[in-house]
Design a protein that fits this description.
With 482 residues, the chain is an alpha/beta fold. Helices cover 30% and strands 23% of the residues. Helix 1 packs parallel to helix 11, helix 5 packs across helix 10 and helix 7 crosses helix 8.
Length: 482
C-alpha cells in the first residue's frame, strides 16, 4: 500500500458499526472510494474479540440486525458466533470485505483546511504509514479493546487459582468440575453464570456488590416465526423489528414515568422463576430506578433456572480480600474458588484512542459539542457512530449511516469540499451519555458534550430520532458548507 493512497471516505473499525457504514456507502453511494481500517487481524469487532462461554447479544437480534439486511430465523438473543457470521456475511454480500485493511492501528488524524483533506497516520507491523481521505468516519465503538476494567482487589496476588477477565478469555481455561466465582452483575455476568453452570462447572457463584434489574425474555420470537411462514423472511423481519422497537420504547418510557410500577412487575416475574422463599429483594432488587442503568435480559430465564437447580447462586456482599483459596467478604463469609472471573466492565475509549487535530490544533473531545450525536463542532468532514444505551446499538448506527450518506451525497452533487457543525455558544451543555453505569461515569468528563436543544441533542428514542434525522434539513444554519 502506497503512503500516497487517497480515498473519498475512510472508515475506522470493521465491527458491527464499521461494516454497516461501509455497506451503506457501497449500496447508496456507488462510485465512492473507501477503505475500512481495522487494527486487529480479523473483522467482527466485539463479536470476534469476546470468546467467553455463552457470549451472546444483550439486545434482540431483530433490532440488533441491520435495517437493510434481515436477521434470519426467530432467535431473539443470539450467540456470539452467529452474530459474527451475520456481520461477516453482510461484509461479503456488499463487497465490504475487499476494502478492509487489517492490522492498521490509527494513531492520529489531522485535518488541513487548505487541502480539505484528512491525513491519517496508521501503524502497520511496526511501520508508520499515512493515508488521506476527504471524509473520516469513526466506527470503532466506545471501549478499549486492549484492556477491560479490572479494579485491583486486596490480596489478589495470593490467589492460587485462575483470575481472568471476560474480555480476554484464555483458550486453555478448563472450568470443568471447578468452583467458579463471577464478580459482577451486568450483562456479561448474567450470561457467564448460567453458561458456566450448564457446561460442567462444579458450582458458579455470582458475587455482586449491588443488584441489577434482570428480566427473562423468550429465547425465540414466536411472532417472527408465525409471520415468516405467512409473508416471508424480509417482511416478517420488518414487522418484528418495529414490534420490538415499540415494545422497547414503551418499556423505557414507562420505566422513566412510573418506575415503581416497572420495579414491581420485574420483581413479580423474578419471584415466579425462583424457588419459594428465595431472597429476591436482597439479590434482585436494585436501589436505582429501572433503566437508570441498562436492564439485563436473560433468554428463557436461564440464570433463574441455574439458581433453582442449585448449580449457581448469587451472593450480594463486598470483597474484603482475596485469599489463597478464594475470596473473603466483608460479612465474614469466605467463597471457595478455583477460578475467579472479573466481569467488572469496560474501559471507555473515544475514537479508538486516535488523536484528532484541525489545522494543527489538537481536538479535545470534552471541549466539543456533538451535533446530532454523530458529528463534532469545529471538526470538518468527520462523523462517529455510537449506539443507544437503552436499545440496540445498530438502531442508532443505521440512522447515523443514513444521515452521513445524505451529507456525502450533497457534497458530491454540489461540489462542496467541507462541512462542519458550527457551535452556538448560547446552547447549554449536558453529558453526551446520560447514564449511571460505572464504565460511563468513570470517563464522562472526557467525552464530547451534548446540547440542551436540537440539533445539538438527540433523545434516547429511536422513533423520535428516526423522524428527526430523516426529515432534517441539511441547510439548518448549523452545518457550514464550503
Amino acid at each position: 500500500m502506497s503512503t500516497a493512497e487517497h480515498v473519498d471516505v475512510l472508515v475506522i473499525g470493521a465491527g458491527l458499526s464499521g461494516i454497516g457504514a461501509a455497506a451503506h456507502l457501497a449500496k447508496d453511494l456507488p462510485g465512492t472510494s473507501y477503505a475500512v481500517l481495522e487494527r486487529r487481524e480479523t473483522s467482527g469487532g466485539t463479536w470476534d474479540l469476546f470468546r467467553y462461554p455463552g457470549v451472546r447479544s444483550d439486545s434482540d437480534m431483530h433490532t440488533l440486525g441491520y435495517r437493510f439486511r434481515p436477521w434470519r430465523g426467530d432467535t431473539a438473543l443470539a450467540d456470539g458466533a452467529s452474530i459474527l457470521d451475520y456481520v461477516r456475511d453482510t461484509a461479503r454480500e456488499f463487497g465490504v470485505d475487499r476494502h478492509i485493511r487489517y492490522g492498521h492501528r490509527v494513531t492520529r488524524a489531522a485535518w488541513d483546511s487548505g487541502t480539505a483533506r484528512w491525513t491519517v497516520t496508521v501503524e502497520v507491523d511496526g511501520i508508520t504509514r499515512t493515508l488521506t481521505a476527504d471524509f473520516l468516519w469513526a466506527c470503532s465503538g466506545y471501549y478499549d479493546y486492549d484492556q477491560g476494567y479490572s479494579p485491583r482487589f486486596e490480596g489478589q496476588e495470593r490467589f492460587r487459582g485462575r483470575l481472568v477477565h471476560p474480555q480476554h478469555w484464555p483458550d486453555d481455561l478448563d472450568h470443568t468440575g471447578k468452583r467458579v466465582v463471577v464478580i459482577g452483575s451486568g450483562a456479561t455476568a448474567v450470561t457467564l453464570v448460567p453458561a458456566l453452570a450448564a457446561s460442567g462447572a462444579a458450582h458458579v457463584t455470582m458475587l455482586q456488590r449491588s443488584p441489577t434489574y434482570v428480566l427473562s425474555v423468550p429465547a425465540r420470537d414466536a411472532v417472527k416465526r408465525r409471520l415468516t411462514s405467512l409473508v416471508g423472511e424480509r417482511a416478517s423481519y420488518s414487522v418484528t423489528r418495529w414490534k420490538n422497537i415499540v415494545v422497547q420504547s414503551a418499556l423505557y418510557r414507562l420505566s422513566r414515568q412510573r418506575p415503581d410500577l416497572v420495579r414491581s412487575v420485574v420483581r413479580k416475574a423474578n419471584v415466579a422463576l425462583l424457588p419459594p422463599g428465595y431472597a429476591v429483594d436482597t439479590h434482585f432488587r436494585p436501589t436505582y430506578d429501572p433503566w437508570d442503568q441498562r436492564m439485563c435480559l436473560v433468554p428463557d430465564g436461564d440464570l433463574f433456572t441455574a439458581i433453582s437447580e442449585g448449580t449457581a447462586s448469587v451472593v450480594t456482599d463486598r470483597i474484603e480480600a482475596f485469599t489463597e483459596t478464594g475470596i473473603r467478604l466483608v460479612s465474614g463469609e469466605h467463597l471457595e474458588a478455583d477460578v475467579v472471573v472479573t466481569a467488572t466492565g469496560l474501559n471507555l475509549q473515544v475514537f479508538g484512542g486516535a488523536e484528532l487535530s484541525v489545522d494543527g490544533e489538537t481536538v479535545k473531545p470534552h471541549e466539543t459539542m456533538a451535533y446530532r450525536a454523530m458529528m463534532l463542532s469545529g471538526v470538518p468532514n468527520f462523523a462517529f457512530t455510537i449506539g443507544y444505551t437503552n436499545a440496540s446499538w445498530t438502531l442508532k448506527a443505521d440512522l447515523v449511516a443514513e444521515y452521513v450518506v445524505r451529507v456525502l451525497r450533497r457534497m458530491r452533487t454540489t461540489g462542496t469540499r467541507s462541512v462542519v457543525p458550527v457551535r452556538d455558544e448560547s446552547v447549554g451543555e449536558v453529558p453526551l451519555m446520560d447514564f449511571d453505569a460505572g464504565y460511563v461515569q468513570r470517563v464522562v468528563h472526557t467525552l464530547p458534550r451534548q446540547g440542551t436543544v436540537a440539533p445539538w441533542t438527540l433523545k434516547q428514542s429511536y422513533v423520535r430520532d428516526a423522524v428527526a434525522l430523516r426529515s432534517a434539513r441539511l441547510d439548518d444554519g448549523v452545518l457550514r458548507w464550503s
